[in-house]
Structure formats: structure tokens, C-alpha cells
Amino acid sequence: MAKTEHGVGIDLRGSTEKLTDNGKGSSYGPDAEVNGSAIPEENLVDRYGFIGGPQQHSGDSAEVIPIEVLRQREAKWLEMLNSWDKWMAKKHKKVKERCQKGIPPSLRGRAWLYLTGGKVRREQNRGKFQELDSQPGDPKWVDIIERDLHRQFPFHEMFAARGGHGQQDLFRVLKAYTLHRPEEGYCQAQAPIAAVLLMHMPAEDAFWVLVQICEKYLPGYYSTGLEAIQLDGEILYALLRRVSPVAHRHLKKHKLEPILYMTEWFMCAFSRTLPWASVLRVWDMFLCEGVKILFRVGLVLLKCMLGSQEKLKACHGLYETMELLRAIQPQYMREGFLVHEITELPVTEKDIEKEHHAQLRRWKDTHGDLHCKSPPRMHGAKAIMAAEPPSRQDLRQRPTIIVESSLASKMDGVRAEDAKERKKTKEENQKTILPPQETINPYLPSSDPSPLHKHVTVQGSKESLSSAEHDTYL
Questions:
Q1: Rounded to whole angstroms, how far apart are CA atoms 29 and 267?
Q2: Which of 47, 183, 289, 292 has the smallest number of Cβ neighbours within 10 A?
Q3: Pairwise CA distance, residues 76 & 145, whole Å
Q4: CA–CA separation, 214 vs 210, rounded Å?
């Protein structure tokens, strides 16, 4: 298994040492600490919120997008989000292409919520997260979750302070999931997934996207026994034979089981492996196209690191190969290179499903029936929407941070006066001439001002955003 940024592998079903406290964390600065370690004053926050560590933006691994291009992409994404069902039904290829180009940072959280179907789940289960959030939770899971909080991106400004709002929201989301799926409970690999989501959206939205990832994208990954991840390891190994025979032969020769090197890659969706710019691009594609993206990333890394005899000269055994895969060379993880290789690799959903059935047969022959009966895997946003078609009401955006404009207020007053005048004229006409059939204009403006223009006071607060507050306008 690959090491994390601290050199510690994932203990998948919980840990034994409690290292968090319930004290309130302070904002970082010259005298602040990251989970108990002093932050050097020269460490500046990068564009992604990191204040140090290997995933901090170094300037050479990420693509630079001109501001004009970024604004154009934002406008296109806003248009898509306003008519999401039509775009997914008729122009899914264009949605996929735009995800491959990278979702604009300002809209990434909202786009992920729509791509995964988390928006629909939230609308269909209003109040559910608040209900789960208010419950104390199973003490066994609560204790393990608390011990894991400090391990999740400790060099990110959101999770740096012990007991800070990032860690509090992470606890809320993970605890709520254990109540939502008590038969599954908590798996340590869910924590970095939830943390990435919380960097982009409020706790309620992060919870529903986590539910969708666990139930639709990676079903069975976080269940006791980890059977689903073992099956996917064998699928990856089988696909590698076609993509890079040299790498496949080397792993087979040294009896390096897939679960030893790909578990953290897949279960954490590469969030603890790649530079942050690459993590975000991989997630944009993964949440659009499904698990095939994780397979492609894994295959690209294995091919790049082990795909030629020249590269294997220093790998004399299992230990050296594991060390090589724990320290993937930076040039293979750069955003531009990695995205190009992922999109060009010819591995499809059909390839994965065909190999999945073959591995299921082998599993049954060697291990018997699966103990965990997980639901069928959905290959991306289109499959999820097709399986559970949403209503337009479920997809409607509900922004509540409204900037009241004096011009808008005047226009509302003018519209209201116009409506009253038209109503008065109509009544007078009806007194003199009664038409055989009354025609009602459905487009007459209402006499009441639009509820969207009611004054909303946004007060400054240190509390985390609610799901109703996260929509902003460019």
C-alpha cells in the first residue's frame, strides 16, 4: 500500500490511538500550529488552501488557464447547471468534454453535487442530514472517527486546527454516514474522500455526495472484508496485461498482489497520492465518467513506472518495486501529462464489466460466494441519472444569498403598478363587453414582488456554511 504524506499507510477499519481533542482551534498565523506542529512563518497558503506538505502547489505541476478562458468556462457551466437534465440527456458528450478540460474552481462544488446525483438525493431527503446530525451516533464509530480527524490533510487551512470548523464538519459528515448505513459503519478511507468534498461544499452537500460515491460509484469498497476492492485489484491486474505487458510480467514474477499497491489509490480516489491540481482534474472526470477513470490513472502510473526494461533495472524484488510505487516520479503525476494519458487510454466501461464478471467467477471458485452483496456499480453521472430520473424540481437551484439591487426593487414596484393598472382596465372592459370565453394571460407579472428579491441579511460568522448558503454569483 502506498504511504501517505506522513509515511503512514491507511488502517482501513479504524485505529487504536486517540489523538484529537475537543478544544476549539484557532486560525493559523506566525504562532499557529498544524495539529500540534509549529508552522514556519515563510509557509504561505497556496491557491488550494495548503500551507505546506507535499500536496502544496509548487507552480510547475498545474496548468495555467487565462482568466478570459476561465470566465467563458464559468458561463458555460452556469448555463449547463440551469438546464442540467436537458444537457445530460442530449449533450452528455459535451458535459464529459468540459469535465475533461477541468471544472472552473468557482463552480466545482456545485458541479460535483449535480454530477453525482447528490443534489437530487438531498432534495428527496430534506431534513434527513439534520436528523442524523442531531443523533449521538454509535460510540464505537464516534471514537474511531475522532481519532482519525487530525490525519486528514493536516497541512490544509481548513483542517489545520484541532477542533476547528473543518474537523467539526468532517466529524459530522462521517458520523452521519455511520447512522445512514449502520450495517457498513465507518472505514478510514472514507475520511479523505469526505475531506476533499468539504473543501468544496458545505457539510450537508458533502454528506450526500459521499453517500453517492459509496453507493453508486464504489459500492462495497468500504464494507467489512474489503471484497470489492480486492476484486477491482484483480481487474486492474488483468487490464495491465493488455496496457503494459512488461509491467504485468514484472508484478507477476515478484508475486506483488494488487491489493498491496492499489488499495489506497482506489479507496481514496488518488486524493492522497497525486499533486492537488491533478487530484481535482481526476475527480472532475471520475465523478462524470465513473470508476473507469480510477482504473485508467492506476494503469498509467504502473505503465510509466514499470513499463520498460530500462525502468526495471533497479527493481530486483518485491521490496524495491513497492518502494518505487510509493515514490512515483513527479513528471508522471503532472496535471497536463496525466490528464492526456488518462483520456487517451482505451479502457472502457465494457472492458471493466467484462473483466468484473470473469473475476467474480474466479472468486466464487476460490473463495465461494461474496459475503457483501453490494448494489451494481454505476459508471458515472449519465448512468446514475438514467437509473433514477430526477424531476425538474429536484434539479432547481435554490440560491439564498441574494444581493438586493435598488434598480431591481424599483423594477418590482413598476411591475406591480403595471399589473394593477392592467387588472383595473380589464375589469372595466368586462363590465361593458363580456367575451364568449375569457382568455387568461399566463405571463402577466405578479402583483407581489418576487420572493427572490426579499431582503436577506448575511451576517459575518465563523460557523461553517449550511447547504442553503453556498451558492454564490460571479
A1: 33
A2: 183
A3: 39
A4: 6
